[in-house]
Specification:
heterotrimer; A mainly alpha (415); B mainly alpha (457); C alpha/beta (253); B: 457 residues; mainly alpha; 2 domains; C: 253 residues; alpha/beta; Rossmann fold; 6-stranded mixed beta sheet; 4-stranded antiparallel beta sheet; 10 helices; 10 strands; 37% helix; globular
């Protein structure tokens, strides 16, 4: 039989090894597909977004008389900008031409000018670096170089003015501080993510403040105190299930309960925080329970054996040892909450809000929702900001996950 | 009195009683044997003084807006001529006037008389809050003082209270489930009062936007959700067609083929993919994949939209790959090594072992994982909101645009809403269906996963 | 002794930095049962897993030296591991039937190796293998029952039948009775004795009585080295080495 076996087996070997290679390459293909997709997403977001981190400015001479300085409140800053522009193009007289010219500067320029001038400013001419309009910004960033209309949305004249300004070295690109420091705006060049970030901070603050203690308490109760009965099983099934409920459902809960029933204000971070707390609780609980179970029973028994009460044992031994694991789980839950947007749409946090929210009751958006809002705009200036906001969001997420990883590494089981 | 004032009073009192309990315990510990160390007397008093009054303030504050509204609603008709339908409008105006968002108009009777009623209601509610708070604090203090004596076993009582507090906190997740169920159920019942449940579940015409008009409320077939369910299924199907093979094969590669060093590189990639917020996937689907598929269609001579179910499903599938992969990996790793060795020992190759031994053994777990993934796919919101269409289109052609349950929920509820219109309530009915379906999928799948784990433990 | 079927020459095995097997030499003859005994952790299981390259599945394992199966080095490039394992079957410590029917368990090897063309041939192999494993009478009426539904002893005999079904030249057994009760153990031991007529059998055991009952030759392992190899009778009655004597007289182990 054994001679037979050798020939029979060797006959089949070739096709069997081919199948082996196929299985292996299917796995490799799947992973390559996933990694390729990730790379594609990241590279597109980055290539679209990096230009939003700089912004185009026009250097405009601003004439300030002594009278101006003495009574700042009477200055019409809009006109000062316009006068400056006229000075750069003294040949323009026609009303339409001037209107075209004025549109090169952003409406935000006068606000910046107002901020820069105080009663201490010496009178005379200053070279003010004025925020350019988004259309100029797009041209200057080279968006339309190879397209059919290299002028973008600028008119023929405007494009000439722009060229002339470039030739005179009056156009510059600087770090886009507006992006980081301002709230939303209907003008792309003035829009920033600060309002959304503050909204996210408020929402996450509430979520952290509520979900960590509640989650930790639930985990401690279930692991250390709860009797093992049907009801405890029910709580457990319930928590696992809650972790898999679609997030939009939590939004419905928030809308029906917190806003309509309890009368909380719409669009407020407090409600967003409540909703995301309920959503992240299962994550925190499951992670905390795992952390508590990994505390070796020998340590618990040693404490109990010395006559410590159960509570004392938990407070003195279980909590300190499980705390890093609990915190790691909480941070991961927070990262999930930071990226979440669907439930917040339900409770009205999706609104055009230009002011940076000051309290947990003021109307606000969050970072992902700002992305959602900007993504809707066909304006190129907003699409580069959308990608930039995504980059900012991803940076926050990476930081949070990094903290979780470091925490986990640092406190890896020592027993 | 503001919320923080209540909180501070509460805290100060609790601290005082804590210190009292401690010092008394020290005082009488010299004379008699104590049941508890002195710290527990303090802890006991602290809990007695703080917890009940804190809970009261919390619950009362939550209920306050509702109570004020109720008081105004019952008192307002006696001073003003109010139609029940217009109450909400007047009430909102009163809120705004009181908050000084709308300037006070002395010639407007709604402002003068209504505001008086409103302020009266606020006063009633806050005075009774103070009185109730005061009495609770008084009773708690008296109880704490009465218990501060040497024969009292403070440790047992304090620990019991803490156990109760922990249990109450762990109830929050249970309450959440019931809260979800009640809130979607309650609004859904109101919806089914206007639109028959049969029409909703089996009707094939979905055009909720038009139903805002008075003459169309609940009129024929505007709320037939079958196209919405169909669209959800279609997109979920496309997503699973991407996620299952790619997720499963990457799991097989990671757990059976990859060396640990390769794993250290590949696993984080999947984790990053899993960690990208859905809004980013949505943006990507709307910006890149949708237009790409439309152009592909153009080149092939097909008229496609960029909102096709294919584009949305594809991106959603990629989003779910890490989920399927990680669950399958867990399940595959749980198959005992001894089974693999038995197969290798017979001379089987790795792929034969995987196909004939590992996968059949892991199948129940993998199926459960796939069900959880399906539940994710049908509950996914941002991708469909951003990249799918809104037109309810009953089709099984993935190249056409469809809409989904979640996209409809968002569209119906975002923006101005009247809470009584069938349009708004329909969102809750859709939410109810979504909740029930995902709940059943989850419970079943989690049950299977749990049984599977126990089998190999 | 005839020309041995296995010749092991100077084999070393490392698990990472751990030197598990130290230059072991051993010849294994056809139609003999050889026992490998020794204290736990002495490397006897590691050694037996070298003979059909089961250690390949462990990432950190490295091996050097020569293992010749009928004169061919099984670690050479020409030797195919699938072919090797078809020729050198293995039975494991814990019974590990697949979660499939009894029939499919036994038919597993013939199917993957493509040993038969017709269903009736496969039926014959399954029947024959189960008969050889002494399990046929007990399971012939429920061949479709799942393999894991059998008792522990039956499961182990099913695993032996599964191994026989491929038609190997050598069967490796890694403590095949350690998870079984005495009655099941006795049955397996009888079976090993019968199988000797057709196969060379290498058995790792922690029970010296078992080694004495089933094997013709015995090798004593200690800390990764073979201390002594010889006829079983001689090893147990008149060991040459001090370490062997200490072990079989129970001074340590």
């Amino acid at each position: 039989m054994s001679r037979d076996l050798k020939t029979l087996v060797s006959q089949g070997l070739k096709s069997r090894y081919r199948n082996e290679r196929i299985m292996r390459s299917l796995g490799v293909t799947a992973l390559l597909f996933a990694s390729g997709f990730l790379l594609l997403i990241l590279s597109i977001i980055f290539s679209q977004g990096y230009r939003a981190f700089t912004q185009t400015y026009i250097e405009i001479p601003i004439e300030l008389s002594t009278a101006d300085i003495e009574d700042i409140s009477s200055i019409n800053f809009q006109n000062k900008i316009r006068d400056g522009l006229r000075e750069l193009f003294p040949e323009l007289q026609a009303r339409a031409e001037l209107a075209d010219l004025f549109r090169l500067a952003s409406r935000g320029a006068s606000i910046d000018l107002e901020r820069d001038i105080s009663s201490e400013t010496p009178p005379g001419t200053i070279n003010f670096i004025a925020l350019a309009s988004s259309d100029v910004d797009m041209i200057n960033k080279g968006y339309f170089v190879d397209s059919e209309s290299p002028r973008g949305r600028l008119s023929e004249q405007q494009y000439e003015y722009f060229q002339s300004l470039t030739d005179r070295n009056l156009i510059s690109r600087q770090i886009n501080t507006n992006l980081f420091l301002k709230g939303d705006s209907s003008y792309p060049e003035m829009a920033g993510v600060m309002g959304a970030i503050m909204g996210s901070v408020f929402v996450l603050g509430i979520t952290l403040f509520l979900s960590f203690p509640i989650g930790a308490a639930t985990a401690i109760y279930l692991e250390e105190f709860a009797p093992k009965n049907r009801f405890t099983d029910f709580i457990e099934v319930n928590i696992n299930n809650l972790a898999a409920v679609p997030s939009v459902i939590f939004g419905l809960l928030g809308l029906a309960m917190f806003i309509n029933f309890f009368g909380f204000p719409r669009s407020a971070p407090i409600v967003g925080g409540f909703v995301l707390t309920l959503m992240t609780l299962p994550i925190v609980i499951i992670a905390s329970r795992a952390a508590i179970t990994s505390v070796p029973p020998s340590i618990k028994e040693a404490a109990l054996g010395l006559g410590a009460s159960k509570l004392k044992m938990v407070v003195d031994h279980v909590i300190p040892l499980a705390l890093p694991g609990m915190l790691t789980g909480t941070i991961i839950g927070m990262a999930r909450a930071l990226g979440e947007s669907a439930p917040l749409l339900m409770i009205g946090m999706v609104a055009f809000i230009t002011e940076i929210p000051q309290t947990i009751f003021s109307p606000s958006t969050t970072l992902p929702i700002q992305i959602f809002l900007w993504a809707d705009s066909p304006d190129r200036g907003f699409s580069e900001r959308t990608s930039a906001a995504i980059i900012i969001l991803l940076v926050f997420l990476i930081l949070m996950n990094l903290i979780a990883v470091i925490l986990r590494k640092k406190f890896e089981k020592k027993w | 009195m503001s919320l923080s004032a209540y909180f501070v009073i509460n805290l100060i009192l609790a601290l005082l009683l804590y210190l009292y309990g401690r010092s008394r315990a020290i005082a009488f510990s010299s004379s008699r044997k104590l049941f508890a160390t002195k710290g527990y007397f303090g802890l006991h008093n602290l809990l007695v003084a703080f917890v009940p009054s804190f809970l009261f303030v919390l619950i009362y504050t939550l209920a306050e807006p509702g109570m004020i509204r109720y008081l105004v609603q019952s008192a307002l008709p006696s001073v003003l001529d109010v139609e029940p339908e217009s109450f909400q409008f007047i009430y909102n105006e009163l809120l705004n006037v009181h908050a000084e968002i709308i300037p006070f108009d002395a010639s407007n009777t709604t402002h003068t008389l209504g505001l008086a009623v409103y302020v009266g209601a606020i006063n009633t509610v806050s005075i009774s809050k103070m009185l109730l708070f005061g009495s609770i604090v008084l009773i708690a203090t008296m109880y704490a003082l009465y218990r501060t004596n040497p024969s009292f076993n403070a440790r047992v009582h304090a620990e019991l209270m803490i156990k109760w507090i922990l249990m109450l906190l762990s109830m929050i997740s249970v309450i959440t489930t019931f809260g979800i169920l009640l809130s979607v159920l309650f609004e859904s019942i109101r919806f089914f009062g206007q639109v028959s449940i049969f029409d909703f579940l089996f009707g094939t015409q979905w055009s909720p936007q038009t139903a805002i008009r008075e003459d169309q409320v609940g009129s024929s077939g505007a709320f037939g959700a079958v196209p919405v369910f169909g669209g959800t299924l279609l997109i979920a199907l496309v997503a699973m067609a991407v996620a299952i093979p790619f997720g499963l094969f990457s799991a097989i590669f990671l757990s059976e083929y990859a060396k640990s060093s390769t794993k250290d590189i590949l696993k984080p990639i999947l984790e990053i993919l899993a960690g990208i917020p859905t809004v980013v996937y949505g943006y990507f689907a709307a910006l890149v994949i949708g237009p790409f598929i439309r152009e592909l269609g153009d080149n092939l001579g097909w008229q496609l939209t960029s909102e096709s179910a294919l584009a949305v499903g594809l991106v959603m599938g990629v989003m779910i790959i890490p989920f399927v992969s990680s669950i399958s990996s867990d399940v595959i790793s749980a198959v005992p090594m001894s089974l693999r060795e038995g197969s290798y020992g017979c001379g089987a190759t790795k792929s034969e072992t995987i196909r004939n031994v590992v996968l059949p053994a892991a199948l129940p777990g993998i199926i459960a994982g796939v069900l959880l993934a399906v539940s994710r796919a049908i509950g996914e919101t941002m991708i469909v909101v951003m990249a799918a269409g809104l037109a309810a289109n009953l089709t099984f052609n993935p190249l056409e645009p469809v809409t989904t349950v979640t996209a409809q929920i968002v569209t119906l509820l975002v923006g101005d809403q009247e809470f009584d219109s069938a349009k708004t309530l329909a969102a809750f009915a859709l939410g109810l269906v979504l909740f029930v379906v995902t709940l059943l999928l989850n419970i079943y799948a989690l049950h299977v996963v749990r049984k599977y784990r126990e089998q190999y433990e | 002794m005839d020309k041995p079927i296995f010749q092991v020459k100077g084999v070393d095995v490392f698990y990472g930095d751990n030197h598990a097997i130290k230059s072991v030499n051993l010849d294994i003859a056809r139609n003999e049962v050889i026992s490998l005994i020794g204290p736990s952790g002495c490397g006897k299981s590691t050694f037996i897993r070298c003979l059909n390259r089961m250690n390949d599945t462990i990432e950190s394992a490295r091996i050097s030296g020569e293992v010749l199966l009928e004169g061919e080095d099984i670690y050479s490039k020409e030797m195919d591991v699938v072919m090797l394992r078809a020729r050198v079957g293995m039975v494991f410590q814990k019974p590990n039937p697949f979660p499939k029917s009894i029939y499919d368990n036994v038919a597993y090897g013939p199917r993957i190796h493509g040993l038969v063309d017709t269903r009736s041939d496969l039926d014959d192999i399954v029947k024959e293998s189960l008969q050889k494993a002494g399990l046929w009478e007990e399971v012939k009426d429920r061949l479709t029952a799942i393999g894991t539904s059998l008792s522990g002893g039956q499961q182990q005999r099913l695993c032996i039948a599964r191994t026989i079904a491929v038609g190997p030249e050598v069967i490796l057994m890694d403590e095949p009775c350690s998870a079984l009760d005495p009655i099941a153990t006795a049955k397996i031991e009888d079976l090993i004795d019968e199988l000797r007529e057709k196969y060379a059998i290498v058995i790792v055991t922690h029970s010296m009585q078992q080694a004495a009952r089933v094997s013709q030759r015995t090798a004593y392992f200690h800390l990764g080295e073979i201390i002594e190899v010889g006829d079983t009778d001689q090893i147990f009655t008149n060991p040459k080495e001090r370490l062997t004597e200490d072990y079989i007289t129970g001074r340590f182990g």
